[in-house]
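Notes from hallway chat w/ T.B., transcribed later so I don't forget. T.B. wanted the structure written out for a chain they're using in a teaching module, and asked if we could keep both sequence and structure tokens in one place. Agreed to drop them here.
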Amino acid sequence: MILQKINAGVFNDMVQDETGSFVMNKNQPSHVNSEIDSDTVKKIRELSKLRKSIELDLKAIATKTKISTNQLKNIESGKFDKLPPNPMRTSFIDQYCSIIQKANKKSI
């Protein structure tokens, strides 16, 4: 069923790689960065600085959220096109922000 939808163009942003996993099509222009508003990017930058100041390790965030450290690094560096498509992208960013904010409240 999923393959039929992919073949029908429903998931035209995704392609199957050599391992059989579905990934974002790198040949298509990405509008991902334009989907992330400037306020969110600014908030991520501020939270990244805060995370470092309270000495919260990316590994700790990865353990709590089950988001890989590579994906967390992509969030912090603004490489949103390397994140999975929505709704997972939004969820990853929300979880990242939430964990740092909670850790900051505990450290105060």
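Follow-up for T.B.: The radius of gyration is 16 Å. Might be a good example for the class.
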